[in-house]
Amino acid sequence: MRRVTFDLDVLRSFVTGMELGSFAKAADRLGRSTSAVSAQLKKLEEQAATPIFRKSGRGLALTEAGETMLGYARRLVELNDEAAAAIHDVELEGWVRLGLQEDFGEAVLPDVLGRFARAHPKVKIEARIARSHELAERIISGSLDIALAWHSGATLPYSQHVADVQMRWIGPAKRIETSLRHGEPLPLVALEAPCLLRTVATETLDRAGLPWRMAFSSPSLGGIWAAVAAGLGLTIRTDIGLPASVSAMTPEIADLPALPRMALFLHRRDAEPEPVAARLADILLEAARQALPEGARTDENLLKVA
Fold this sequence. Notes:
The protein has helices spanning 8-20, 23-30, 34-48, 64-88, 109-119, 132-141, 196-207, 221-229, 251-254, 275-291, and strands at 53-56, 59-62, 94-100, 123-129, 146-150, 159-166, 168-172, 186-191, 212-218, 235-237, 246-249, 261-268. The protein has 306 residues and is α/β, with parallel strands linked by helices. A hairpin with a 2-residue loop joins strand 1 (53-56) and strand 2.
C-alpha cells in the first residue's frame, strides 16, 4: 500500500465544513474562497483514493469511507492544535472555572480535561456539575467563566448556540414489565423540580391527552438512570451520555407523543475571556460537537459545497 500523508489544511477545511453544515460557511470561517475549499475536497478524495462524498438530493452526504475519514480528521486536527497550543502557550498559567450539566460529565469532561491539562499543565481547573438554571445563574454572577448547558430560558449576553438536540423518550435497555398499558397513567421518572425536561415531559403528555403519574424523582441523573433501568417508568433526555442500562425509544413504536428539540449553548462570562478561559472554551466546544448524536446538526448530513 502506498504511503499517504494527508494535508492538515485540507483536513481542517473538511472538518470545519462538516461541523458548520456548509463548505461555503467553512470557507468564510477559514478565510478561503469557496473554490479553494472545493479544490481541497477534491485533493482529499484523490489522496484517499476512494470517494468521500456521494450525492444526496441537491447536496452531498458522506460515504462510509467519508465517515471513517471524518473521525480521523478530527483527531489529527485536534492533535495538531494541541501541539501548537502546548508550544506557544507553554507558560499559560492561572485558573479557570468550568460548568457542565451531568449529561456531559462522562461524554465530554474526561476528553476536555485531558486535552487541556496536557497542553497547559500549570493551569488549575475548577469544574462544577449542575443543572442549566444554576449554571446560567453562576455565569451571570461571575462565579463561572464558561459553561455548557441546555437553554434554560435565561438570556445571557455572551452565549454561543451549539446545536438543537432532539429529546427522546428513554426506557430500560432490557425489556422490563412496566405499567405502560392502555388507559393507565404513564409512569414518569424525572429530576426534582424545577427541571426543564420534567416540565417538557408533563406538558407534552398533557397536550396529547395522555394521563401520567410521577413514579420516581431524584436530585441526580444517576438516580434517574437507575430507576429507568429498573423499569419504574420512562424519562426524557437526549442521546448524549446514555448509559448502557437504558435506551432511547421510538415514539411511533411506543405510542408516545413526539418531543421537541432542545437548544445547547456555550456560555461565557465575558465578551473577551482571558486566554486561559478562551482556550478551554475552544476545546469544550470541539468536544461537545463531537459528542452530539446524529441529527443534532441538522445540515451536517446534507452539505452544500457552494
